[in-house]
Amino acid sequence: METLEFKIRIKASAKDVWSVLWDDETYKKWTGVFCEGSYTITDWNQGDKVHFMSPNGEGMYSIIETKIPNEYMAFKHLGEIKDFKEVPINEETKKWSGAMETYRLTPDDEFIDLVAQVDTVEKYIDYFKDVFPRGLEVVKELSEN
Which CATH number do you get for residue 58? Predict the structure, then answer.
């Protein structure tokens, strides 16, 4: 597994960037670059499960491993969802189960440096290198307006 890192500098408060990342309405906007119509099912509390969903009922389930509001969010990805149901871990899932995805907000003057890191298997590296920067551009646009 490889860890990819994506950075963007945003002229906004940490609170505003955090809201854009995790509020239901804006989350759907910036993650639309990954999958149009994507959404989550979660209460966004540390230790809670998260279902990252596509409109057709597929996705993955994860745990919020760490949540420090306006600073840091870490997800541990566990398994797949098919037909709106969690699928038991299989040989394919074992290759990436336990992968981490983190978001760190660091204030610098009137800017926030947002750093996203994602663990991925080789077949998704090019995909993430394409879509992650575009998603973070949407976060920037929404946060600065």
Answer: 3.30.530.20
